[in-house]
Each structure stands twice: as C-alpha cells, then as structure tokens.
Amino acid sequence: MNKEEQVIVRFRDLYNKMVWLNKDKMEDSLKGYKSSEVHCIEYIEKNVESNVTKLAESFYMTRGAISKLTKKLIQKGLINSYQKSDNKKEIYFSLTEQGKAIYKIHEDLHKEFQERDKAIFEQVTEEQFDSMLSFMEKYSRHLDTEIEKLGIDMKSE
C-alpha cells in the first residue's frame, strides 16, 4: 500500500474509531434525537441567519432533505422559523430553549471527548498542526473541485 492509500485508510480508520468510541455516550445522552438533528441544531446555534440553503451546503444535502429535517425539528419544539421584516421570502431558524438544552448536552460531550484526547494533542507541535491543517484544506479544495466537475449544485438539489 502506498503512502497515499495509507493516508486515506488511516483517515477512515481514525474517523470510525472516534465514532465508535463516542457513539454510546452520545446515544445515551441524546436519546430520541438523530445525529443529523443534533448537528442541525449545532449549526443553527453557531451560525447566524441559518436557512435551508446554508444548511444544505454545510451538510451536503438537498434543500428538500433539509426542509424535512427542519420541519421535524420545529415539530419537536427544538427550533423556530422566522422571517426578517425586510425579506419576507427567506425563512431563517433559531433554537428554542429546548433546542439550546440539546445543543449544550452535545457541546459538553464534545468537551469531554476533547479532554479524553488531550494527551495526544499536547504532543503535537505547531508545525505539525499547520502541516496537517494545510493538507486537509488542500484536499478539501480538491474534493470541492471534483464535486463542481460533476455539475452538482448543492444549492439547487
């Protein structure tokens, strides 16, 4: 296996280990909520003026799928929809108190996992971080270009 293949395999393996390690605690703490719902709540909390288009772009989902997801979150009492007085066409989302409680649980879990993994990150130098981040950014831009080549417009799907 060449180094390129090793990087891909190790990225996938690393991601799968993180998901597996965090899964039980996440599911126990956030019972009754799907991962996509929790991550939608997280996005809305962290990004002002969240709307269907921004959510679709962020999650690489269609606007139709995001509309279904946000309707479900509204029905569960986790988010509100609103319009601005100067733009009655666009619908934006904000968290309800219940949504903020779910967000807080999720954030606390991430902090707990970060604390668990702190020992390894403390060993990484600034140069190593910069190198890893640079590689991930280049790879991400490459994948964006490949998505564009397929003629996929995440906004209109």
Distance between the termini: 37 Å
Q: If you average the pLDDT, what whole number results?
A: 92
Strand order of the largest sheet: 1-3-2
Which regions have little confidence, pLDDT < 50, spanning 5+ residues? none
What does this entry show, briefly?
This protein has 157 residues and is mostly helical. The chain is 69% helix and 11% strand. β2 and β3 form a beta hairpin.
List keywords for this structure.
157 residues, mainly alpha, three-stranded antiparallel beta sheet, 6 helices
What can you see in these coordinates?
- The protein is 69% helix and 11% strand.
- With 157 residues, the chain is mainly alpha-helical.
- It has a domain at 34-123: Arc Repressor Mutant, subunit A (Orthogonal Bundle), CATH 1.10.10.10.
- β2 (79-84) and β3 form a beta hairpin.
- The radius of gyration is 18 Å and the shape is globular.
- The termini are far apart.
- The model has no long low-confidence stretch (mean pLDDT 92).
Task: Itemize the secondary structure elements and their pairings.
Elements: H1 3-29, H2 35-46, E1 50-51, H3 52-59, H4 63-75, E2 79-84, E3 87-95, H5 97-121, H6 126-149
Antiparallel strand pairs: 1-3, 2-3
